[in-house]
Amino acid sequence: MRRLCRQCRAELGVDDDACRVCGALNPVPLPWYTPVLGAAMLAILVWLLVDVDALVRFFQSD
Ligand SMILES: [Zn+2]
Fold first, then answer.
1. Domains of the chain by residue range
2. pTM for the whole structure
3. If you measure from the C-alpha of residue 32 to the centroid of ligand 1, how many angstroms do you get, rounded to a whole number?
4. Which residues are found with C-beta within 5 Å of the ion, ligand 1?
5. pLDDT tens digits for 6-23?
6. Which stretch of DSSP H or E encloses residue 56?
7. How many angstroms separate the CA atoms of 10 and 4, rounded?
8. Can you say how many angstroms the Cα of residue 43 is from the centroid of all Cα atoms in its chain?
């Protein structure tokens, strides 16, 4: 997909967020699922780091 600078209409590289011609910022558009993916990875990381067995034992003991 071609992207054009929103200020001078020069063509931008795929990963360029600043125009090489005029220096205007052109943020790279993120796909809609980026925050979903981030949340899922965070949940997996927490799951791996937290000792789940210890929590289960804590809540089951009385
Ligand atoms: Zn430009």
1. 1-30, 31-62
2. 0.46
3. 26
4. 5, 7-8, 10, 19, 21-22, 24
5. 999 999 988 889 999 999
6. helix 52-60
7. 5
8. 14
